Amino acid sequence: MTQTADLIVIGGGIHGSSTALFAALRGMSVIVIEKDTVARHASGVNAGGVRRLGRHLAEVPLSQHSMEIWYGLQDMLGADCGFQIAPQIKVAENEEELDRHRARVQTLNRMGFYHETILDQPQVRHYLPAVADHVVGGLASLRDGFAQPFWTTTAIARKATQAGVVFKEGERVLSLKRETDWTVTTDQDIYQAPKVLNAAGAWAGALAGSLGEYAPVEAIAPMMIVTARLPKFCDAVVGATGRPLSFKQMPNGTVVIGGGRRGRADTATNTSEMLFPELRNTAATAMDIFPIMRGATIVRSWSGVEGRMPDDIPVIGPSALHDGLYHSFGFSAHGFQMGPGTGETMAGLIETGATQFDLSAFAIDRFAPPNT
């Protein structure tokens, strides 16, 4: 028997689950269809950075909005997400990099945003006593933070369930078609709703393409390293300006290192593969920035499948071709922080047709199909 709702969400990551939660809080009936389990891919295995720092300028207003939600998210969900407020610092290893940061702060200030600030060398050493001597300064957002991705996404899904959202895990969408309403056919059932959100991550481009909307999503597999416990030496989340790095010491003393070096992702088999030469480069960068890491022991590593767009910013907003179809995908390895804010924004847009944010930079039709 066909199941119906006001909204069907395809994808049970942080963006799909957050939109479902906020839509339910607006009184909508919602079904989430997830081909695996909630938080199985990018939303459960990312680095956990809750970061406004260094974002594409088009993302800044939405990221700011999301940060305000993050500050009260654990209370809202009634769950421990592992969220801690902490400085996010992008270190500059030479004066040219520091000058680029100064120019960015000026641009943000002209836009009316003041969350990013320049740190000179003594200030960087105040926040990062163990940083290498050659670091000359940095760019910081002092009230960003980090969280546990799997805890957070599953907590959002639990709260959504309490609000009436129905999660259908382990169901693969076979087709999406529109007659009067949208009909979603899975390998197990049929669902209908007047509105559908495509939040299918690395698989979202194929879904959009089946409806005539070109979305060149690249499946990527960012890789992470965790070390054995070390004495406390870092209270910030640290990146580098000129090379990939995401670095933080957890409360238990372990160090989580990532930053964008990639393995191989395969959406057909639902898997990712580690590339250990690339992991070696990640470890080398960490040791360059923090010499204390030269004695650290790596205890495990992992990767997950994420969706990346060619311009490294997501697709957010309504379909360019179809009424009642919306997109939220392609967050390009930096979507975790934006999850709650984007979800709340999309829920409002889906229910009312309007939003306070300018989403034009994220429009799906910004990409020209090949040979056009």
TrEMBL record:
One Gene Ontology MF term: oxidoreductase activity
Keyword Oxidoreductase: yes
Domain FAD dependent oxidoreductase: start-end pairs: 6-347
Keywords of the record: Oxidoreductase
InterPro entries (alphabetical): FAD-dep_OxRdtase, FAD/NAD-bd_sf
Coiled-coil parts of chain: none
Signal peptide as annotated in the record: none
GO cellular component: cytoplasm
One Pfam short name: DAO
Name of the protein this chain belongs to: FAD-dependent oxidoreductase
Organism placement in taxonomy: Bacteria, Pseudomonadati, Pseudomonadota, Alphaproteobacteria, Rhodobacterales
